[in-house]
Amino acid sequence: MSSTQERGLGDRSTSATLDDLALVLAAMPDPVVVVDDTGMIILVNDRVGAMLGYEEGELAGNPIETLIPTPLRRGHVKLRDNYDGTDRAATMSSRSNIFAQRKDGTAVPVEISIGGVKLASGSRITVATVRDITEKRRAHERLAYLALHDPLTGLANRAHLMETAPGVLSAMRTNAQHVGVLMLDLDHFKQVNDSLGHAAGDQLLIEIAQRIKTMVRGIDLVVRMGGDEFLVLMPRTSPEHIEEVGRQLVAVLSDPIELDEAPHPVTVGVSVGAVATDDPDSDIDALLVSGDLAMYRAKGTGRNRVSVFDEQLRTVMMSRFAIEGRLRRALDDDGDVAAGLAVNYQPLVDLDTGVIIGFEALVRLADGESPVGPDLFIPIAEEAGIVDRIDLFVLGQALRQTALWAEAGHPLEIVSVNLSASTIMSPELLVELDGAAQALGSAELHLELTERMIIQGTPPVKERLGLLRTNARLGLDDFGTGNSGYAYLMDFPIDFIKLDRTFVGVMEEDAVARAIVSSMVDFAEGLGLGIIAEGVETIGQVDLLRSEGCRIGQGFYYGRPLSAKEFGEVLARQSTGLEAKAAKPASTAAAAKAAK
Prior knowledge:
The chain is of the alpha/beta class. It is 45% helix and 21% strand. The longest helix has 21 residues, at 387-407. Mean pLDDT is 84; it is low at 1-15, 87-94, 578-583 and 586-596. Residues 94-145 form the PAC domain.
């Protein structure tokens, strides 16, 4: 019964009769119960019986408590006594959520609207509209559940964590216990999503969630933080226990997983950051930061492992985050590169003639802050997911400069650029390469890959390399320093190798290094691969490399990486013959200075 209808009954109180009420009740769309001033049921409409399971006439003459579950009856009597004691019964209306009891004894959540009516006889009755709110309550409960849980995995979500953590930390302070956090991030989850689809990715996440739950205690809270990141909040624990659980999770989550969309079981690793604290001043935000730092170290040191937080790690990782921030500032909002990055060009030289025939393009962080080498910031850019934007910038600059130098009368034979694994799979790379021919002119584009990329190369990566090979020559950088072995050179579409400076730099003094260089050159020649020597710093190394059949080299003996302006000037001097021999150092002292 709506409030308007209740007020109408109240306004007609001097003339209302039970017969009038019976007619009104029959027309009401909601279940309605009428109770006299002693608490006895005197009228109900058919909808009450339908809702609570009673036949016609069964309820009249019974106390209203018949419809109230036993545990709630005492409270109802108190409420009724308070209500009956007011003089406003004829006009007041109240609403409350309680439970009604069906005939079979089961409870049903209801919403009750109550109105007082005075009959012509002067007696007072109470009219109650009773609505079944089972579905409404379920909807509210579902919303409340979703507010604190991840809908995919059923795990707690971040909001649940933030609600629970203060109580856990408070208990730690009271009982002098440790609280721990395990921060988990799946390794290579994106590859599953990209290759098998989001349905397979969801199935994988559900299985991962179940495996985590089986490895922790009932008092531990397992949380899906978002994406492929999970967390375990562990009260009443110890540093040793936290680390041990972390190791167990790495082992269990690395086991193959059967997916509906995958022809074979899928294996993903997990990087785990572990942190334990008994510091009474600690809070959940500090634990999350520490867990993240440890997790990032686990990723940076090989993935699929546990890293335990310590204060030294905070210093190291905060430095890494600072570098990431500098890199992001060097990239504008459109993904282009601002003045914070620069490209340098290291000469590639014909060892027989000393003539510069090309360059390797090397990126530099040039934002005016403290110097940071690419060996440090490139891995950080890879982890941050921005290295492809940097690689494409370097490629674009290299092609642009090659065209400008050719227009100035200084054509080159080789334009060499380094690529990361994510850049190889980037659609933008294919677009860039399709338009590269005009800028290259007669020059060859060399794309340098790392041994790790080859070792971890999946069939899609191998297929993409074959596609890239239609526009460029592919090379293996720093050959001999990793653990790829010679077999990978036969399995992957590689056109040249670069002998690492580790061997080239000591081949004059170390007979073993010289023998290794000789064997690598022989092997490459046997496969028809080109050879480029890195780290050439002395004329003795040049002579030895030439004797082994290596034609091209680079290193401080010939020149450090130069800005575009400096490299252009060197090319101009070489073209005009101003120097007796292009790229040859002016003096031994100058070469030594450049090597530093």
